[in-house]
Design a protein that fits this description.
With 209 residues, this protein is α/β, with parallel strands linked by helices. It is 29% helix and 22% strand. Its EC number is 3.6.1.66.
């Protein structure tokens, strides 16, 4: 049963259909409906910061201010050990620095090209979720999730989005793109962050007060 103190609608500060699908499935059990900022005519916020939490907070405040509703933002990315944690916050635009048009496929292509001769394949997918009740919320809720894995030598699988086809998870013996949606959602970086966020919302009686 949904907690009556929770908002029925949250503005998701993203227009990424993959993020919307994953997060909507995770928040649905509490009766929360996520609506993208684009569906409300809200433009994307600038993301000038160097950390996931700073960008997520900026996006959440922007969406709340423009919509008048509580907002949820997710800033996530791939952190490759051999690259000192990069591309990090620049994950979505990674391929553009190598002359490719922005797309998931080109991001994967560029990453594999840059790692062609690198033996250290360790990487982590990181997600930071920030929720605000209103634009000036002095106590935003913050939750993070992290999953470690290895960058595969070639894409495998057709599920998910982003770098899922090359993010090999040793515990499952396959890439994120090979996992059934419900399994990926239960174990992904975003899934872990979402569960932590839901627990925080319930604990704080959010967004009351």
């Amino acid at each position: 049963m949904a907690d009556a103190t929770l908002p029925r609608r949250l503005v998701l500060a993203s227009n990424n259909p993959g993020k919307l699908a994953e997060l909507q499935a995770m928040f649905a059990p509490l009766g929360l409906e996520l609506v993208t900022q684009g569906s409300l005519g809200i433009p994307e916020a600038p993301e000038p910061h160097h950390t996931f939490i700073e960008n997520a907070l900026a996006k959440a405040r922007h969406a709340a201010a423009a919509s008048g509703l509580p907002a949820l933002a997710d800033d996530a990315g791939l952190c490759v050990a051999a690259f000192g944690g990069r591309p990090g916050v620049d994950t979505a635009h990674y391929c553009t620095q190598f002359g490719y048009p922005k797309s998931d496929a080109n991001n994967v292509r560029a990453l594999l090209e840059q790692m062609r001769d690198i033996d250290d394949r360790r990487a982590a997918m990181v997600s930071t979720l920030v929720a605000v009740r209103h634009p000036e919320d002095p106590e935003p809720l913050v939750a993070s999730g992290r999953v470690e894995g290895l960058i595969a030598r070639e894409p495998v699988g057709h599920g998910g989005f982003g770098f899922d086809p090359v993010m090999f998870i040793p515990a499952f013996g396959c890439t994120f793109a090979q996992l059934p949606t419900e399994v990926k959602n239960a174990h992904s970086h975003r899934g872990r962050a979402a569960r932590a966020m839901l627990a925080l919302m319930q604990e704080r009686g959010w967004p009351a007060g």
